[in-house]
Automatic annotation (TrEMBL):
CDD domains: MFS_NepI_like. Its main location: membrane. This is Putative MFS family arabinose efflux permease. Belongs to the major facilitator superfamily. Gene3D superfamilies: MFS general substrate transporter like domains. It is a multi-pass membrane protein. The chain crosses the membrane at residues 48-67, 79-100, 112-130, 137-159, 171-191, 221-241, 247-266, 286-303, 309-336, 348-368, 374-392.
Length: 395
């Protein structure tokens, strides 16, 4: 094995583990929301703020962390970001235990800061690998990082819920935080020293034009809205599916219901295939097909039969990730004022939608039951599809 291949292999493995650490923490409360709502005596939408505050923090953190990484180095910034995220993740668990009054509100504040710190990983990971490996290897490395984020999101959900059902939601989240710390240690040991990084401190006057230049493009606006609307609907479905399955007539124990999150693997399967189809044909029809598949899956969850609900969850997940894989790549290719800034704006919309509609899905659940949440998501996905069909060009 050459020195260069060893360097690339270490980076690839390190990025996989930091992807797991980031997204396991971000989504660990999702399977625990019914427990959080019951113990903290809050409504479903209030409980979902444990997800929404963190994703809002991440959305707001992506752009600042990208400039910190430019100035001080990708690896240094990522280590600082993920280490601080683990610390505030621990504080989020401790707040309700230490403070009898306002403990839940303090936990939400800690989750927001945790999310802001987590923003340093998606902001810098791809730039780090693109600087350190050849373009050919970078494609595989990017896929490995994405698989780590997917596995991390899944792990955070299916580990926290069974543990939380037996020992309480705080222990469930704490278990995931400990797992994340172990992954960070692996990253620290394996991530190679940057060999091709050149520090660049951007002047304040340069920041706004670099960001707003991309907003002059109708294509990019549509892609940013694509992430905002579909990710918002996707997270709303997963946030409140546990409430639906744990209530009559299904009354499934939370630890068992959490295994519906294995449907997430459908996205791991569909996203690379969507990318290959988009390269072979064109992006627009593949993106539209992904949205339509998502809409079909969301609609299937209205059928009052457990097997059909699970099938619908698999279908909507596959469709969402297929469309997301196409849109996230398209924003870089269509950028008019810098690819990094275009990707940051997409992430801002993507996680901003998660935060807003991940909360409003609970309001719809409260007002109209599961059908209310589903109808909201159908509206979001339908609007995204209509905009894409009308505005996006044939590439």
């Amino acid at each position: 094995m050459t020195a260069q291949s060893a360097h690339s292999r270490r980076l690839l493995i390190a990025l996989f583990f930091i992807g797991v650490a980031t997204f396991a923490q971000l989504y660990s409360p999702q399977g625990l929301l019914p427990l959080i709502a019951a113990e903290q005596d809050v409504s479903a939408d209030r409980a979902a703020l444990m997800i929404s505050t963190a994703t809002l923090g991440l959305a707001l953190g992506v752009i600042p962390w990208s400039y910190i990484g430019d100035a001080y180095g990708r690896k240094k910034a990522m280590i600082a970001a993920i280490s601080l995220a683990c610390f505030f993740g621990l504080l989020a668990v401790l707040m309700p235990a230490v403070f009898a009054n306002h403990g839940f509100e303090l936990a939400l504040a800690m989750r927001f800061i945790e999310g802001f710190m987590l923003g340093g990983v998606p902001a810098l990971a791809v730039a780090y690998l693109n600087e350190e490996v050849s373009p050919k290897i970078a494609v595989a490395a990017a896929g490995t990082y994405i698989s780590g984020t997917s596995l991390g999101g899944l792990t955070g959900r299916i580990v926290a819920a069974p543990v939380g059902e037996q020992l309480g939601w705080k222990i469930g989240m704490l278990t995931v935080t400990i797992l994340a710390v172990a992954c960070v240690v692996v990253f620290l040991r394996l991530a190679p020293t940057a060999e091709n990084f050149t520090p660049r401190r951007v002047q304040v006057r340069e920041i706004l034009p670099a960001l707003t230049g991309n907003l002059r493009s109708p294509t990019l606006w549509t892609l940013y809205l694509q992430g905002f609307l579909t990710m918002g609907g996707f997270v709303a479905m997963y946030n409140f599916l546990g409430f639906h399955l744990s209530a009559p007539p299904y009354s499934i124990p939370l630890g068992i219901a959490s295994f519906v999150f294995l449907a997430y693997l459908a996205g791991t399967w569909s996203s690379p295939r969507a990318g290959r189809l988009a390269a072979r044909y064109s992006r627009k029809p593949v993106l539209l097909a992904g949205n339509l598949i998502m809409i079909l899956g969301v609609g299937l969850t209205l059928v009052p039969h457990l097997a059909v609900i699970i099938m619908g969850t698999v279908v909507l997940t596959a469709g969402f990730f297929a469309a997301h894989a196409v849109a996230s790549g398209w924003v870089g290719a269509a950028a008019t004022a810098g690819r990094a800034q275009s990707a940051s704006l997409y992430n801002l919309g993507y996680y901003g939608g998660s935060s807003i509609f991940g909360y409003l899905g609970g309001t719809a659940l409260h007002l109209a039951g599961w059908s209310g949440t589903v109808l909201m998501v159908l509206g979001l996905a339908g609007l995204a599809t209509l905009l894409a069909a009308i505005v996006l060009p044939k590439d």
